[in-house]
């Protein structure tokens, strides 16, 4: 029995909770108190020195400087701070895309305005009453062009056809003032005159070139706005409860453990953030397609579609068409009279045509091709840099915001203590988080807001794909096209050829059971410290028993 006190003493020592790095004296909580106060919380009830941590629900349950209330406040704070990081990163992308839109929009609107102004300045002296009495026809044309560019549901080809028809009707009457020409006669005249090309090849040529240029310009400008809007909406998606726990453990648990100076392990941070932003990473495929599509259309705008020349010379093409009509006036009139009959002689007498001035005014188009080239070059650089935004975001947040340690650091915060971090880094996207050791992610329940934004990216990419080949598709039509499994056959091969049916955003989500994490994860320190303490107690008890039986 003389061994009983010794064995009892061993049991008492073994059952005492471990102190980690601390000595026999409780460490001061001054650093945590300072941090807690700096975050705007009251220091009332905050420990002056470490206390036992059995009450903790997120952080490891060793000695701690955090009460339950502090842990809850830190968790809420970490949530708001991480969401703020997301919004700040998103605002940077939004600013870039909005600036690109603003630059191109300003250039394009200026190009159209200069063409319209050149027409108003030159046509009165060139055509006299042919212009002054038909000014509204020209104003309506430019108004329709602007409305189309700004997104109105206008058929551009029909708008151009309507312009040439109205112009022909009015000019024909002005060039034949001695006749009384009724609306019915004008209808007949238009049918007969069109086959004789009264304006030459200008209407057909301008329709082809202007339509392609406007479709490309409108889709290009809209692409930037859609991209910016997607980033804005996705940046506002709230964090899950599991993610909030993981972010708290990453950012504030080391402070509670008295390790304020220890940085989080880089791979540990990556797993936390990749788990939290799993749905956001699924935007990557369609986001890259959008960026690539914008680059392709940018090349069209500055290249084969020649937007600067086509839009900047609209007034010159109209002047060319009017000159063609004037030169062929007699033959066109004779053919119309032959097909529609001779109209009645007007009792008002002639005017207009005799009074018009035929002074030659040199029409010029000031080229801004160099400005467009610089705009496109700048846009392509920014678009290329943004292609990997969604999958590069975790690394960016960990290095620049969370301030994680270097990848080689083996004395970093690993979620439990200061040391190395052993688990491998997860892949990107929802499906790859099935075994994430830090965040419990239900891969069978994708975020619906983000799925909707993935669809918006598909729709816009489809629109740009059509613009690339000169086809016009409005958003409603694009949405109908996008309701299937792909994003439309009209997407250019060099942009969308790699999609097929393997796009992560279009396949059915896999269903897996979420395994219980026993080694490392959100379960806290108690799940791993209690079994080891229990084994230690058994071992000591066994040794003591041996001595007692001797």
From TrEMBL:
It is found in: Cell membrane; Secreted, Extracellular space. One of its GO terms (cellular component) is synapse. It is a lipid-anchor; GPI-anchor. Cell surface proteoglycan. InterPro entries: Glypican, Glypican_CS. PROSITE patterns: GLYPICAN (PS01207). Keywords: Cell membrane, Disulfide bond, Glycoprotein, GPI-anchor, Heparan sulfate, Lipoprotein, Membrane, Proteoglycan, Secreted, Signal. Residues 481-494 have a biased composition (Low complexity). Belongs to the glypican family. It comes from the Eukaryota. One of its GO terms (biological process) is regulation of protein localization to membrane. Transmembrane segments: none annotated. One of its GO terms (molecular function) is fibroblast growth factor binding. This is Glypican-1. Residues 1-20 form the signal peptide. Residues 475-524 are annotated as: Disordered. The lineage of its organism: Eukaryota, Metazoa, Chordata, Craniata, Vertebrata. It comes from Rhynochetos jubatus.
């Amino acid at each position: 029995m003389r061994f009983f006190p010794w064995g009892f003493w061993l049991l008492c020592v073994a059952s005492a909770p471990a102190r980690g790095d601390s000595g026999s004296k409780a460490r001061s909580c001054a650093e945590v108190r300072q941090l807690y106060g700096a975050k705007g919380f009251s220091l009332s009830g905050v420990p002056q020195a470490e206390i036992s941590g059995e009450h903790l629900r997120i952080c490891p349950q060793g000695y701690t400087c955090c009460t339950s209330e502090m842990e809850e406040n830190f968790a809420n704070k970490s949530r708001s701070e991480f969401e703020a990081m997301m919004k700040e990163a998103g605002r940077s992308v939004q600013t870039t895309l909005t600036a690109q839109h603003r630059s191109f929009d300003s250039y394009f609107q200026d190009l159209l305005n200069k063409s319209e102004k050149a027409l108003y300045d030159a046509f009165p002296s060139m055509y006299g009453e042919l212009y002054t009495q038909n000014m509204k026809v020209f104003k309506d044309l430019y108004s329709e062009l602007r409305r189309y560019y700004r997104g109105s549901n206008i058929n551009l080809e029909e708008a151009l056809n309507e312009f040439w028809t109205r112009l022909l009707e009015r000019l024909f009457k002005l060039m034949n003032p001695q006749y009384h020409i009724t609306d019915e006669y004008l209808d007949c005249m238009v049918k007969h005159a069109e086959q004789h090309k009264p304006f030459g090849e200008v209407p057909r040529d301008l329709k082809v070139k202007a339509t392609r240029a406007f479709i490309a310009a409108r889709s290009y400008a809209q692409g930037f706005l859609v991209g910016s809007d997607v980033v804005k909406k996705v940046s506002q998606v709230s964090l899950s409860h599991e993610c909030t726990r993981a972010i708290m453990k990453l950012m504030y648990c080391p402070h509670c453990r008295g390790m304020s100076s220890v940085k989080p392990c880089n791979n540990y941070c990556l797993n936390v953030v990749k788990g939290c932003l799993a749905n956001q990473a699924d935007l990557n495929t369609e986001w890259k397609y959008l960026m690539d599509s914008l680059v392709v259309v940018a090349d069209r705008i500055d290249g084969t579609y020649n937007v600067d020349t086509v839009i900047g010379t609209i007034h010159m093409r109209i002047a060319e068409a009017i000159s063609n009509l004037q030169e062929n006036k007699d033959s066109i009139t004779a053919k119309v009279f032959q097909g529609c009959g001779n109209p009645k002689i007007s009792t008002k007498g002639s005017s207009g045509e005799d009074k018009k001035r035929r002074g030659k005014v040199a029409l010029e188009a000031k080229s801004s091709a160099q400005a467009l080239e610089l705009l496109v070059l700048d846009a392509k650089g920014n678009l290329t840099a943004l292609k990997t935004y969604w999958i590069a975001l975790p690394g960016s947040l960990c290095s620049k915001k969370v301030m994680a340690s270097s990848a080689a650091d083996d004395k970093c915060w690993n979620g439990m203590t200061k040391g190395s971090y052993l688990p491998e880094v997860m892949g990107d996207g929802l499906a790859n988080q099935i075994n994430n050791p830090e965040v419990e992610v239900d891969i069978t329940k994708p975020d619906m807001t983000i799925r909707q934004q993935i669809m918006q990216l598909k729709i816009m990419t489809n629109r740009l794909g059509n613009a690339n080949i000169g086809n016009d598709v409005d958003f409603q039509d694009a949405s109908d096209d996008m309701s299937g499994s792909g994003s439309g056959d009209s997407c250019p091969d060099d942009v969308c050829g790699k999609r097929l049916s393997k796009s992560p955003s279009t396949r059915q989500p896999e269903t897996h059971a979420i395994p219980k994490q026993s080694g490392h994860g959100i379960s806290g320190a108690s799940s791993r410290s209690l079994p080891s303490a229990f084994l230690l107690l058994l071992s000591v008890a066994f040794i003591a028993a041996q001595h007692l039986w001797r």
